[in-house]
Amino acid sequence: MLAPLDPDMFDPACPSSLSPVRVGDKWGAMLVRCLADGPRRFSELRVPLRGITAKVLTSSLRTLERDGYVTRTEVPGRERRVEYALTDLGRSLLTPLDAVCAWAGEHWDELLDAADAALERDRTVAR
Predict the structure, then answer these.
(1) How far apart are the two ends of the chain, measured CA to CA in Å?
(2) CA dist., res. 82 & res. 17, Å (int)
């Protein structure tokens, strides 16, 4: 059995909208990271992804499945149990995602400054 996902795996102050690379959708890269150590159930994936709704998580997982990054497997048993796992294609994203995460860490202040500047421009235009 895998260790539980860390609820603090992603910094709540780190909006995924600042991610310089998108896989599937806003949550895709983070889902790939959550699945790096092996298959996970839907409820497990919600733990580190604070703020994601069940509907959005379902949609994101379907997008990753459609794009070939994730498989969805119904596990036989008395209770309905579904697990999500990375495909070989999905697993091949881990190394580039590690590089992007390292780059984002080095340029975090610049990314935040750019996001703040864009927000301020939007406020000025709206006036």
Answers:
(1) 55
(2) 28
User: Phi and psi (nearest 5°) for 41?
Assistant: -85, 160
Above 90 in pLDDT, residue 111?
no
What is the sign of the dihedral through the CA atoms of 32, 34, 39 and 44?
A: negative
Which DSSP letter does residue 18 get? Answer: G
Contacts of 7 (CB under 8 A, 6+ apart): 47, 48, 50
Task: Give me the residue spans of the domains in the chain.
Answer: 16-126
Q: Which CATH number fits domain 16-126: 3.40.50.1970, 3.10.350.10, 1.50.10.10, 1.10.10.10?
A: 1.10.10.10
CA distance 97 to 114: 21
- pTM for the model stands at 0.77
Q: How far apart are CA 46 and CA 122, in angstroms?
A: 31
Separation CA 24–CA 46 (nearest Å): 17
Looking at residue 28, what is its pLDDT? 92
Q: What is the pLDDT of residues 90-106, one digit of tens each?
A: 999 999 988 988 888 89
